[in-house]
Amino acid sequence: MVLYKKLKGENVEVSPEEEAEIRAGWAVVDAEIAATKWAKDRINEYPKIEDQLDMLWHELDIYGTIEKNGPWFKAIEAVKVKNPKPE
Q1: How many CB atoms lie within 10 A of CB 72?
Q2: Residue 8 pLDDT class (50, 70, 90 cuts)
């Protein structure tokens, strides 16, 4: 794919050196996106805060504490297992 830049209102093909620099920048951005994908996926899949608070209230009401077999812990754990944090 040929890359262009605007120069005095005209599309001009970038030099091989400029293209290498641009592609290196894209690679850095792609790596950053990939490195944080797990976190963004978790954010999008966690239950809404209102629902989490309701789960916690019921969990405390039933168990008197937050339990690993309770609804809140299980919901959060499922998201973390599905979207593991890279080592």
Answers
A1: 20
A2: very high
Predicted pLDDT at 86: 87
The rounded distance, in Å, linking the Cα atoms of 1 and 27 is 16
φ, ψ dihedrals at 51, nearest 5°? -70, -40
| Beta-carbon-side half-sphere exposure of residue 59 (alpha carbons within 13 Å) | 17
Residue type, 66: I
The whole-angstrom separation of Cα 14 and Cα 79 is 44
Query: Which H or E run includes 6?
Result: strand 4-7
Compute the half-sphere exposure of residue 66: CA atoms within 13 Å on the CB side of its CA.
11
In terms of Cβ atoms closer than 10 Å to its own Cβ (0-12, 13-18, 19+), residue 32 is exposed
User: Rounded CA gap, 54 and 62, in Å?
Assistant: 12
Percent of the residues in the chain that have a pLDDT greater than 70, as a whole number: 100
